[in-house]
Amino acid sequence: MxxxxxxxxxxxxxxxxxxxxIDLQIDDGEFVVFVGPSGCGKSTLLRVIAGLENLSxxxxxxxxxxxNDVAPADRGIAMVFQxxxxxxxxxxxxxxxFALKLQxxxxxxxxxxxxxxxxxxxxxxxxxxxxxxxSGGQRQRVAIGRAIVxxxxxxxxxxxxxxxxxxxxxxxxxxxxxxxxxxxxxMIYVTHDQVEAMTLADRIVVLSGGRIEQIGTPHELxxxxxxxxxxxxxxxxxxxxxxxxLMSSAASGAVVQIAxxxxxxxxxxxxxxxxxxxVTLGIRPEHFTIGxxxxxxxxxxxxxxxxxxxxxxxxxxxxFDEQLTCALPERMPVGTTIAVNLPPDHLYLxxxxxxxxxxxxx
Length: 362
Description:
- With 362 residues, this protein is of the alpha+beta class.
- The chain has eight helices and 21 strands.
- The protein starts with a strand and ends with a strand.
């Protein structure tokens, strides 16, 4: 096993900067997930660690060794791609053993490694089948098994569940978590699916425009986003972000006015900002309360998304381009007029540059 470190890592394709001054420490045995929108650089960053792309500037270190000029095969890593890339004419056993045979290992050692990987992934009963005889989840296990038999210091996963259906993705997330627990190896995982990130990661690296926006545990990113981007990206449904103007700030908290003209009291200290400053007010859908008189907004339900035990209402708000998303206690008819409240202790405030003014006291 080994830690992974990037220092001032930058990557450009001609005049296009894809990665910009990335500084990142991934500890030995950690499960770290890279997330971000398409084009943010997360897959390129993984390929840089793997040695499939060369850095334009900076260094990559694996186990304390600079590997910029080290071939991928000699970095002590194993990579699992979105496509399974199995050899269709080979059995599962032969697919697992192929890389080991290239290393000219003894057959007894190959058999032992293949048997151990198969047992770990519960595919022992599939060893004599061809890939076309396997389900998508079984093929992905075989692809992971090819990585396991090499006993790498670091596992790299590039959106490995993207080709699976929703139910199988849930099952495979559970299996990835168990795999990390049983192997204890450093794992770096790229995904656009934040549910995978929140479920699997010890820490999440949020990328935007080739830069790191924030690094933290799933809880830290959800409860304490450092920027508007992270606040809007982490969470499903996403946080409501309302343009506002700072009216005043006192020890008891800041007061802002939103576009509808409503005045909203928060428990956030915004003494660093001058009255009249443009800010962004944030509230997560589950933090609204229905009824009451504190920070009360009258609104109309325009659409309801029901997810079995959870219901989300999409609500009109004058002066707001998007609709508010609010967790409802029950399914409500479209057109229902309701009053929602914004609890002061569950509000977020971001300055004009998009940085968190301070963390709410929840």
